[in-house]
Amino acid sequence: MRLPVPVLCAVTLSLLLSACGGGSGGTITPVPEPAPAPTPGPVCTQSLSAQPAPAAAPMGGAAWVAGAADWSRPHVPGRVLVSSAVSGPALSTLGVTGQEVVPGVTVVTTLPGAEVSVADRLQAQGAVIQPDYLYVPLAVPNDPGVPGNGGVTVGGARYEQTYLTRVNAPQAWTFLQGCGKKPVAARTAVLDSLVNAAHPDLQGRLVAGRSYLAGGPSDDGGHGTATTGLIAATTHNAQGMAGLTWTGTVTPLEVIGASGASTSTVAQAVRDAVSGGALVINMSLGIAVTGTTDPDPVLSKALSDAAKSAVLVASAGNTAGDGLYYPASHPDVIAVGAAGSGDALACYSARPLTGQTAQAAQFMIAPGGAGNCPGATNATQLLVLNHGGGYTLQAGTSFAAPLVSGAAALMRAANPALSAQETKARLLTSARPTAEGLRFLDVNAAVRSATR
């Protein structure tokens, strides 16, 4: 039986650089959104191989546990923190004075540069000492696309990655950094069209992939470059976009040619991705299917086998009335629909049909751009990598799915002990409910859930 050719799950923006959906002409500059405040006090309940914290929590006398003083770390010059084991008269005999800052802890002031020698003398008197360590705000990516950094120029106007704040990605980054971790991706495979590995904003993020096209022409329209960049655009390189993950490797597997993809190419790529150690697989492709029987037994078997070790994510499709596309409708796959400018499903996004209870249990949504929905503007689309080396605006469930894949990659890197099934379950249950009763991706909640 000849199967339909899968299609890319991206919405064509007929008015990409002019107002969409019947608005006035010309480019539209969005109002920059302020960067969110850091989430207070990360609570890391899972062992994350963090660096040992300095002995910097003196909460009174015996509660202050001695730690190795590290004078190479940033600290306030001319200050030493001292336990109450050394009395005021003893400090005077050493030619220094101090002031109690919290119960049981005194800050001793010395000449700048003399703090180490003074600390040595105090330690010889039986004092527990440490530097007055300096703490600075956690790093915020300097990529222009990150909200608050000025935006990336497309078509003469500047646009930001507002979808990052909508899914609470900056809070997740801050949480991971507070646990001593970078926002690293577990090994991820992207099954898509040709990816421009030479794109300046993908340097250092890709490992050698493979093309499964049997001599057919590649599709160089940029779909694969755009989806890959949402997960893995090089972060904190002072240019372009920030990927949802900052470090870690992504394997681009070319399964979509100029004529589309096929069962054999996708099934083979899925199996190879798992053999290569992929813990997350993104598939922004699909076909509309009807009926309840398995629409593609060969691919279905490959997906079921892969789901034993990898989190599988697929775009839901871009026709609102046809139900979920396949493979998004496969029971082992997280199906991702697209939210427009708000929390509601975009007008074009596929969704489970009434009665599709099993499919609805695996369905969630993430920002995908407003497409040509009523009221859409350039500012309501997604900023993505352009295959030619720059940046562009796109919309579609194709671009919502990689945000979910990126969240899964952060989760599995933060807690390598999580199974694929547990990661999937926590990703779905950590999503925040929308007014429509759907699950909206919350990267911060997902990452925190992974560490518990």
From TrEMBL:
PROSITE patterns attached to this UniProt entry: PROKAR_LIPOPROTEIN (PS51257), SUBTILASE (PS51892), SUBTILASE_SER (PS00138)
Keywords on record: Hydrolase, Protease, Serine protease, Signal
Naturally occurring in which organism (per UniProt): Deinococcus xianganensis
GO BP terms in the entry: proteolysis
Gene3D superfamilies: Peptidase S8/S53 domain
Presence of keyword Metal-binding: no
Start and end residues of each Peptidase S8/S53 domain: 189-433
Signal peptide range: 1-19
Family: Belongs to the peptidase S8 family.
SUPFAM superfamilies found in the cross-reference section: Subtilisin-like
Catalytic residues as annotated in Swiss-Prot or TrEMBL: D192, H223, S398
Entries under Pfam families matching the protein: Peptidase_S8
Protein name: S8 family serine peptidase
Matching InterPro entries: Peptidase_S8/S53_dom, Peptidase_S8/S53_dom_sf, Peptidase_S8_Ser-AS, Peptidase_S8_subtilisin-like, Peptidase_S8_subtilisin-rel
Gene Ontology MF terms in the entry: serine-type endopeptidase activity
